[in-house]
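Trying the structure run again after the queue cleared.
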Amino acid sequence: MTSRPRLVLPVGERDHIRGPADAPVTLLEYGDFECPFCQAAHPAVEEVRRRVGDQLRFVYRHFPLANVHPHAEAAAKAAEAASAQGSFWPMHDRLFEAQGALTDEDLVAHAVALGLDVERFVRELASGIYAARIREDFMSGVRSGVNGTPTFYVNGVRYDGSIDLGSLLAAVVEAREAA
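Done. Tokens:
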């Protein structure tokens, strides 16, 4: 029996985190904002978060599959530009909920809708200052055995089960009971 891949880069201050730092379970997703499978997983993750509450820390890392999804990297950069203004999670949710709207014009419209400083947002997107951060996430995923999106890790071990509410919730609950 082969062991499942483990997370190479531990969760830290650089990460986008929802939930308490001391939660017994960490669910980490390597995702792509243009990936239909990531979009389909989004409501399941949100429901797991709702049901498990403060027993769960959810972490999102970028893994844009730019060769398949032409808007994925720009969307990741938009999420980082929103993060710089304290709005990573609202932008994260909006990008998945409006996945068909990821052109440059759409990203600006999302920034307007979230009440961001749009001039700063556009300037930062144009500058490319978030490319290194996204590349760091991507490379940490590659080193951790990620080869598609979404890829989840539960307490640092890759989750290879189905990405539906029941299966994901069962894995999180099992990890919580083992903690």
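The chain has one domain: 16-178. Worth checking whether this holds up in the mutant runs.
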